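User: Last request for today: this protein with nicotinamide-adenine-dinucleotide, please.
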Amino acid sequence: MRRILVTGGAGFIGANFVRMVLSEHPDTLVVNLDKLTYAGNLENLAGFTDHPNHVFVKGDILDAKLVEQLVTDHNIDAIINFAAESHVDRSLVDPGVFIETNVNGTLTLLKVALEKKLERYIQISTDEVYGSLGPTGKFTEQTPVSPNSPYSASKAAADHLVRAFGHSWGLRYNITRCSNNYGEYQFPEKMIPLMINNALNDKPLPVYGDGLYVRDWLYIYDHCTAIWKVLTEARPGEIYNIGGNNEKTNLEVVGLILDRLGKPKELIRHVTDRPGHDRRYAIDSSKIMNELKWRPSVTFEVGINRTIDWYLANETWLRHVVSGEYQQYYASMYHNR
Ligand code: NAD
Ligand code: DAU
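Assistant: Here's the final one, the structure of the complex with nicotinamide-adenine-dinucleotide:
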């Protein structure tokens, strides 16, 4: 039996990954360590919290004793680190917690992985470490790291630490750098679910600047299958880019959401831009496609329809996450913008 410690497994990508593993790879024990910050939500694991191969532990990746104990008690062979502060806009308001969790938290996990001689340590990173692209070209694994926001700087620092542990002490690691994920259970601070939620409530859709910023959208399930391939088939010490090959401007995405929900374009509101906003991301996924034979399973059109259908069918989930603290966040981020 494979025995993995997943951190951040109550967040968007982590929970989808845990769900996929428990559904499709029954010979796997998943120990799920999550602090349950504003972004962590046990409702993301609906139907799986009591699965016999799933152990959920509420705790912090900075708690070295706890991490060590979980690795020992469950005889863990690999750590997959999803836990992070993940929202660029929040990092521009309060960068400190990004350094704590994303850098120091990663360091804590790396020390345990090395000390316990784990088979593998997987760092879930981001294409944002590469910075921003002009109108042409794509990020490859050779693109120099050049992060532009406190969030991406903290992720890049973590990536460097992972690589240094491999180089200096032989830690068996992989780093994955993916593009923008979308899909079920994404917290509505990120663009797609925020726009869906606002459109459903006939509220203005706040498009930053001219709305011509480009992201390469990757459907969540396809990201999860790529991570599984890296965990189970990749050589240690390799970095893999994972993209959806789906470049869209923000205005195109917002337009599609409005059309699909039958809402008027007049809901679009251009608002003050994000400081230092990266203009374009695009991923060259040929390494993972050639070496590990990974392929995305859906086009953007299929994935976005599935996503919108999910939000329509899960109104209770959405209502819970946008109550309370979310209202204060929204007011501080968008009023007077
Ligand atoms: P998310 O914000 O939805 O979830 C993060 C999870 O980490 C939450 O469950 C939270 O409770 C947990 N967490 C935060 N601090 C913690 C701590 N100190 N100890 C334990 N748990 C903690 O994020 P996400 O979108 O699921 O992203 C997951 C990972 O993927 C992150 O590392 C992020 O940088 C990376 N990533 C995300 C995207 C994307 O499009 N969402 C794209 C590229 C990379
Ligand atoms: O590229 C991978 C990254 O994608 C991940 O590492 C991050 O964790 C994830 O949050 C995401 O970062 P982005 O900043 O690209 O995602 P976000 O959903 O915040 O924004 C997507 C685009 O939409 C971006 O150009 C900013 C714009 N935007 C966003 C919001 C929240 C708006 O125009 N209006 C908004 O209200």
